[in-house]
Amino acid sequence: MRDLSELVDAYMEQEKLHRLEGRKGVEAMCQLAAALGYKDPMYFGQLTSKATIGDLLCMMEDNPGMLEAMIEWVRTRRGPEFREALEPLVKVEDAAVDQYEGGVCPDCGEEINPASTRGDECDNCGHVFNWGESDDAQTN
Known about the structure:
- The protein folds into two domains: 4-76, no CATH class; 91-140, no CATH class.
- It is mainly alpha-helical.
- Helix content is 39%, strand content 4%.
């Protein structure tokens, strides 16, 4: 009797699902989800006659470990693109943007980077953000 790994490999070979990059990779994952029994009754996002985005979504909904593996994959990326995308979206405690009226630099009037904190410089003019007893902040 073949184990699951061998069966997946055999299925992928049989269906010629060799490419896992880009659109072809998404189609392969959707087709594998359908082959494993995940069927979206609405056929959401029909990609090919054997692959729908809905089938993959059903599989992901039923298997949180799959999502955990994807999140862990994102965490381990070393390139700057994911960090740069998330950084402005993550609320920074004691952020400079929250300390200055309108969230703008008092020197140049440009929007303050949401990740800036006390002691950081304005990306535009180099103003050092400092507030407290001798603050230069004009709180909202």
